[in-house]
Amino acid sequence: MKLSEVSPGMKVKIIRLGQGFPALRKRLLDMGVLSGEPITVERVAPLGDPLEVKIKGYRLSLRKEEADEILVEVVS
Amino acid sequence: MSKEIVVAVAGNPNTGKTTFVNAIAGTRLKVGNWPGVTVEKKEARLEVGDVKVRLVDLPGTYSLSPFSTEEIIARDFLVKERPDVVLNVVDATNLERNLYLTLQLIETGRPVVLVLNMYDEALKRGLRIEVEKLEKLLGIPVVPTVAVKGEGVREALETAVRIAGSVAKLDGHVSYGEEVEKAISEVEDWLLKKGSAVLGKYPTRWLAIKLLEGDQKVSEETGIRELPDLPMVKHLLSAHGELGEVLAEVRYGIASGIVRESVHKEDARPDLSEKLDRLFLNRYLGLPVFMAMMWLLFKLAFDLSSPFVDWLDGLVAGAFTETLAWGLYKLSAPEWFQSLVLDGIVAGVGTVAVFLPVIFAMMFLITFLEGSGYLARAAFVMDRAMHTVGLHGKSFIPLLLGFGCNVPAVYATRVLESRRDRVLTAFLAPLMSCGARLPVYVLFAGAFFGSRAGTVIWSLYMVGIGAALLLGAILQRLLFRGEATFFVMELPPYRLPRAKYLLVHTWEKTRHFVVKAGTYILAMSIAVWFLFHLPPGAKGLEESYLGRLSKAVAPVFSPLGFGNWEAAASLVTGFLAKEVVVSTMGEIYGLSSAEEDEIPQEFPSHSWGEVFKGLPLAFVEAGRNLLAGLYPVSLEPDEAEASLLSRIREVFTPLSAYAFMVFVLLYVPCMVVLAAFYMEFRSLRLTGLMLISHFALAYGLTYFLYQAGKLLGYGG
User: Fold this and answer.
1) Whether the Cβ atoms of residue B557 and residue B574 lie closer than 8 Å to each other
2) Which residue in B26, B273, B365, B704 has the most C-beta neighbors within 10 A?
3) Is B277 in Cβ contact with A52 (below 8 Å)?
4) For testing the chain A interface, which of B384, B391, B483, B490 should be mutated: the one with the most A CBs within 10 Å?
5) Would the CB atoms of B387 and A28 count as touching at under 8 Å?
6) So what's the pLDDT on residue A39?
């Protein structure tokens, strides 16, 4: 599933990043958004977008359209 | 005499890097721009022992990828100018992500010192960092610091000087793993065998890694578009498709390994940021809290500064002007010279001076918001709304400030990270109806719309916002087509900024305005004085160059409903500051004719007394404003204006008056905004484009309004 479809509090792991936008992809990689990395959605902004996620022990915000490029799976 | 060594300071944003640099260099820091771009460059010359040091602060970046101006500047400096040593400031509480940049810095082949900043905070959070182990794992010296208290800062600099110019021994310390290292050496060997001319320009290992990553900028610069058939490179490529991700994973893998071995979490303390975010970013409360914060920001910035604006105005227009007039009289200077000095130069100085308190207050508050971590949250809350019109969440703040004054709004665009967002926001900020336009609205709406004046004025604010949306949409299609923007943004932990940090930053920005923009403002004030007073012997405004110019251009405004020269003349002077439109009209209609100032025969000691008494009063007044709430704007015209009203009613109709107000709102940013914009973006093309686009937009909209109004039978 896409990260944008994950509801807050769910534990997920990144499978891969989309290839569509090279610059976005590189930026995400630089920020530590890598495959295999656990990531949690902390909350959604009051107006419904962007999202706040926690990864590698810090907080990151990204828009839903950017979160669309991040494929994740639920960690059981 | 030893030669000067170059020390570069690099690090992620929000690591206290700026505080670190200030702690080292303090007042010796020179602030400028990197050549050709609007990114701030800070450097200082120091002496450590008998060694001369040139300290260069690189822009804060998370990586050295070529995707933002800041990153390109940082990496070009490291790779092409080859500083003797790099001080890498990292946030000790968030070591893993910070080490990602550290590894890239080490890749450039420069000796690196790891500055473990915010060390006290890490201890408070229960993190135990084994410094020696960290040094061993990274193969570079590590110095713990608390930059806000100045602790460890000197040691860091001395360590840097000690290892400056040494050959960094990275191989064997940080290994990227068997396969990747093999691929890197394959490319290195190939490059060496090829003996390409580019070799001398780049560190070989760095170049090899960038080519493996498929770094577009390096391919362009070197002309090496493809790698040859190398066994390990081929193997990795076929397994992974591309190696950019592999290298990012390898670096992060190393970083997390290092952290696992050298950092121990003793006990998990509750995270203050998490608690604050539960309120500030709350689904339901987030927005109201944000609105309250913005209201407070606006109120503090303008209410707090307004008594000081009045005080400075009194100082320059009163005591200072009178003293100069007295001095010129004593020297028996010719009358035209007195006028040039008093009405041209002093007026220009006055313009700069009265903006000072506003800019200072605003920059102080913005620095506080930025340093505290709330600014990122404000962007988070507002991004949805701003993104629909193609802007960034952070754009909201400069635009909001624009309603008070457009000048600090232009400066406030510095909170934005990408140049695209900065330029776009600064382009639109002057369309927010500022306080200086209000006197024009009050006069005209008062003259024609009576009890509905309030609604009419409100509608003008809306026209400004609408115009900004329209122009924003057009600009994005013309100027920034296809430029990607992201909102991948760190939400840094909340921190209480120190007073010293706030003052240093505020002063830097305020000084920039006075020194840089001030020069242009003064020059323009003098130019306008000549327009008013030349040719020699001209009687009154009508015969001056200003009058002649106005008569020539007046017909241009006929289709907009105000083709008289008086309106045109007030528009010309309105460029100085929009409220001047009112005083020019008053002057032209001969009602509040420029009062003949009495030339003081004695030193104006009384006025200086007033000035000294006035300063404490300004503080009291500022305090009172804070408590009193936003004072309502008086819509009652005073006596002098009342007679001006009747004259205006003869020349304008309600429709043309409304058209005139819309035009005054939009036609050009005032010269102070223009000077600030030019100094911020250093581009004549953009500044010219702003002038032309605003004018075209104003003309088009006003034309449409006026002609439509006429068709609908609102009189013409």
Assistant:
1) no
2) B365
3) yes
4) B384
5) no
6) 95
Higher pLDDT, B511 or B666: B666
Distance from CA of B614 to the nearest CA of A (A): 46
Q: What is the pLDDT of residue B268?
A: 65
Count of pairs with CB atoms under 8 A, one residue in A, one in B: 118
Q: Does B486 touch chain A (CB under 8 A)?
A: yes
Domain CATH number, residue A56: 2.30.30.90
Helix, strand, coil percentages, rounded to 5, for chain B = 70, 5, 25
**A56 Cα to chain B: minimum distance (Å):** 7
The domain of A58 spans 3-74
Question: In 3D, which of B242, B99, B230 has the Cα closest to residue B174?
Answer: B99
- How many angstroms separate the CA atoms of B56 and B72, rounded? 15
The CATH code for residues B5-163 is: 3.40.50.300
In chain B, domain spans = 5-163, 179-242, 289-711
Give the total number of structural domains in chain A.
1
Q: In chain B, count H helices and then E strands.
A: 33, 10
- pLDDT of B138 strictly over 80: yes
Q: Say whether the peptide bond before residue B535 is cis (omega within 30 degrees of 0).
A: yes
Strands (E), B20-61: 30-33, 40-48, 51-57
Identity of the residue in B282, B383, B491 whose CB atom sits nearest the CB atom of A63: B383
B165: left (phi over 0), alpha (psi -120 to 50) or beta: left
Q: Show the 3-state SS of B107-130.
A: HCCCCEEEEEECHHHHHHCCEEEC
Could you give the 3-state DSSP secondary structure of residue A14? strand
> Which DSSP state fits B35?
T
Q: What is the pLDDT of residue B630?
A: 47
| ipTM exceeding 0.90, yes/no | yes
Does residue B106 contact residue B140 with C-beta atoms inside 8 Å?
Answer: yes
B147: tokens are 């930059």
